Input
Amino acid sequence: MTSEQAAMGTTVTAPQGTPPGAGRERVFGLVQRHGAAAVLVLLLVTGSLAFERFPTGDNLGNIAITSSFLATVALGMTFVIITGGIDLSVGSVFALGGVLAAYGVRWGSLAALLLPLAVCGAIGLLQGLLIARVRLAPFIVTLAGLLGARGLLLSISDEGARTYLIPHASLLARIGQGSVLGVGYPVYLTLVLFLAGAVLLQRTRFGQSVYAIGGGQDAAALMGVPVTRTKVTVYVMSGLLAGFAGALNAARLSSGVTILGTGMELDVIAAVVIGGTLLTGGAGSVSGTIAGVLLLGVIQNLINQIGDLSSSYQQVVSGAFLAVVVVVQTYLSRVQRLR
Amino acid sequence: MTDDGPLLEVSGIVKRFTGVLALDRVSVRLAPGEVHALVGENGAGKSTLIKVITGVHRPDEGEVRLAGLRAEFASPLEAQRAGIQAVHQEIGLVPSMSVGRNLLLGREPRRRFGLIDVRRMEREAARTLESYGIGVDVRRPLRSLGVGAQQMIALARAVSVDARVVVMDEPTSSLESREVETLFKVIGRLRAQGISVIYVSHRLDELYRICDGVTVLRDGRVVHQGPLAELDRLRLVSLMLGRPVSDVRAQGVTKFSGAHDTADEAPVVEASGLTRRHMLDDVSVAIRPGEVVGLGGLLGAGRTETAKAIAGALPLDGGRVTVAGVPLRRGSAAAIKAGVALLPEDRKAEGIIPTLSVRENIALAALPRLSRGGVVSDARIDRIVETFMKRLRIKASGPHQRVAELSGGNQQKVLIARWLATEPRILLLDEPTRGIDVGAKAEVQALIDELAEAGLGVLLISSDLEELVEGSDRVVVLKDGAVVGELTGSELTEEGVMTTIASHSRAEDDGG
Output
């Protein structure tokens, strides 16, 4: 009945300080961080083998430029989500940024860039203050922001009836439409922003605060992390980046299109999560986000290559992919917690 | 002790929470290099006082002086900048971040442009930790370390900044004895540097080993202050409890009565061959009705995992659990239905729902039992809640008080009440008295006894050897996930348990 005679000596115990599963944890970490990049490479290779029109410079450049606007918005969202928050307003703010740029171009290209940055930054600031200082739920605050920014956009554009144009000769239009080596300026701008974002996140105290708040806000506060300031800052960043991306997109299209950005926040969140950033906060990376954005772009492009497949399937595939990512993430964190 | 003037002087602190007086004109003086014990039952005001000193709460009256200067802290950050560091009972670190980044968060070494010098940070972190006897890879996430190691890292973080006063709130509650020794060495070093320590602990041995002065709090008031050496243990306990010395002497420190006579009854729970890779290796335990079976062993020996496995909360590679002869299906729902109740080790994370009331917390697990056709009967809940609040002597303003506002001991009682309300056949208690004060501890121990007498099978996990030995009828000793011995009757002594743990090294086991 008793178990004194139970067989012993078969467990494998790791030496002190290295609990069992440390190696496994490393593997999980790799999957978490670089899973999206790995799948992206896989898709690029199979895409190139399957469709001869896929790996052309034109096509890849096209993926890059269409992804760059989403990527810029997703950069801000990455910071927000790592703090454990969410920003649903980015789609509306993106559209608002575009309309404001087209509206402001009458005072010159500089004004056309500064106006959306000022307004969208202010929206971010207001949201950040409500979330960090008044402690309202990010979901609700930014949902209000989504509606508010869309309303503001409509009021500027006569209920959406007026579309402001950006003259082709303006500097703004040239930034949006010009290219070097077959790749549009916005792509380079996005890359620079991501580089800066990566450095900010990994190599500065601000970045460490962002991780710390998402990993445990109370603990972070006890450790002296400036919680309020950091949270306000990430929402301001998100607003600024969404507005800037909107302005750039308008410059590329030569007009402030009012119907853009509806539902964009969901694509952005999907890209960030696919990139390995945890919706619960505390973990994630800027490089993952870029992989996530490109992955969505490549999936869409590949489905377009399959001529007779409706492009609606792109959303089905993206959705399925997102679901798989979330399942894997949940599984990984559950295994880690159980140990 | 105040020859050079106090380093920290707290005087006349009053703090009220929604009308309740938590601190009533409390004054404490700390000389440089003094280790000062702060003791009292849970709810006596220790935590509140600590929070006032560390800038979490602002006092309604009174003042804090640091090296003679008046200090008003608007936030923990300001208190830290002034040199007041705190090590909390719940580790105040970020589990998802690496060890090194946790250790140096907010004061990372930087290069030009304010960029963090990651390699220097890792080197510095490793060096700091080494000096506290912790040798871990500083790049690993904190989460992947044991609780004891995490606690040491929190401590290292607190004292490696320019600390003048370090507040330690139950720092040893999750440490192994080896780690406790390291902690004491660190405290010795702090003392030599003229850094003062406020030391909060329920473990009297520790207090007498390292503390110079003592402040005893009860109901928010200072009831005694002075050198600890001049206060004998019995008197200290009686001061904390507010009971005469003779009372304490008569009842002893633990509240267990004798053994329960159960030898010939069939086991109510039988776990056999529980196996899970890296955790459990063929663990078998049987518990009879009315019997308290202890699980002995060091941290990480597989005690918690065994309890979880029996409660269906740990997926197994092999083995089975039967309750009253009926094999249990997988999952904790089946286990609960069969009458297995688990009181988890980490009551904050795994048990208590702090935002709900006492009433709701107690009724939670019993709701299926208390409802008919999906409709819950309020009257029946009220009756059950009232019964258990009385029987377990839960101190709350009423059934509708939020559990978060109760002391640790009372939270624990609420959890026990929750499971008792489901009328279990077996109760698995994982460190039921950890972090609760002497008085509440005695009550919980008495309760365990009472429950066993009433015919419940109890599995008791405790790192407090005295509690384990006195409370159990039988102790099964685990080591590295396997059973290495079982002690009953006259072999069941603290020494016996320690010898069993110590004498079974891996090499020997391979032979047998």
The radius of gyration of chain B is 24 Å.
